[in-house]
Amino acid sequence: MFAVGHMAIAYLLGKGSSKVLRIKLNIPLLFVLSILPDVDIIYDFLTGSNMHRRPTHSIVFAIIAFAPLFIIYHKKAIPYFLALISHPLIGDFFIGGRLQLFWPFSTTQYGLHDLGSYYIGINDPVNIALELSLFAIATFVLYKSGDWKVFLKSNKTNLVLIIPIATVLLPSTIGYPFSEPLLLTEPLLAIAHLFYLVPFSIAVSKTLSYIFKKRCRHSPKTRKPKYHNSNLVTDRQ
User: Fold this and answer.
1) Phi and psi (nearest 5°) for 217?
2) Does residue 14 belong to any structural domain of this protein?
3) What pTM value is reported for the model?
4) In b/e form, how buried is each residue of 168-192, taking b as 16+ CB within 10 angstroms?
5) Which 3 state secondary structure label does DSSP give 110?
6) How far apart are the C-alpha atoms of 171 and 177, rounded to whole Å?
7) Which residues form the domain of 136?
8) What is the count of structural domains for the chain?
9) Is 65 within 8 Å of 77 (Cβ atoms)?
10) pLDDT tens digits along 84-123
11) CA separation for the pair 38, 189 (Å, rounded)
12) Does some domain include residue 153?
């Protein structure tokens, strides 16, 4: 599944669970966790290995990572945990499959097609239609709830959006890790990616600008050296 689908699913799950649990939601963090497992794509690119859909897509790995967060934050961690595991258990399980869900205890690959179902690839028309539908629903909820306004504020947590900008949204749009840019192969999906890329970039830019201005405002001003007038004593003749 492309980034748009993952983020839409995670946002809808996080939004729904936060309503039930009556807790405040960090929207940027939710989006980041939704695509975090795909950082293995960057690792594969840098090392030449083939680790995609293995450790970072393991639910064992997710449980271990979130165990201390559940101890500290209790129910407040639930929406973010759902956002993380929705990536392998929903998005990639139904689309593509071949997941090592129980790594490192098992390297068995799982997916909907392994259960005898029709294989749905990432470029399959079924997946394209599904992701665009999820994108439309998530966008509608984002607008109606007013959550979109968070991207217009200067908040340090917005800096985490650098992750989806650098690792998924922009590369997917310009080509990497695919052979051709989405703008050429799937223009509608490319537009959906850009829809997220623009507000994410605005949020990061506004936050960095705010931090820079704040530091300049509180930095000690350069002090000019003080010159003392000396009395000129002249000898009277």
Assistant:
1) -70, -35
2) yes
3) 0.85
4) bbbbbbeeeebeebbbeebeebbeb
5) strand
6) 7
7) 3-147+159-202
8) 1
9) no
10) 999 999 999 999 888 999 999 998 989 988 777 788 888 8
11) 18
12) no
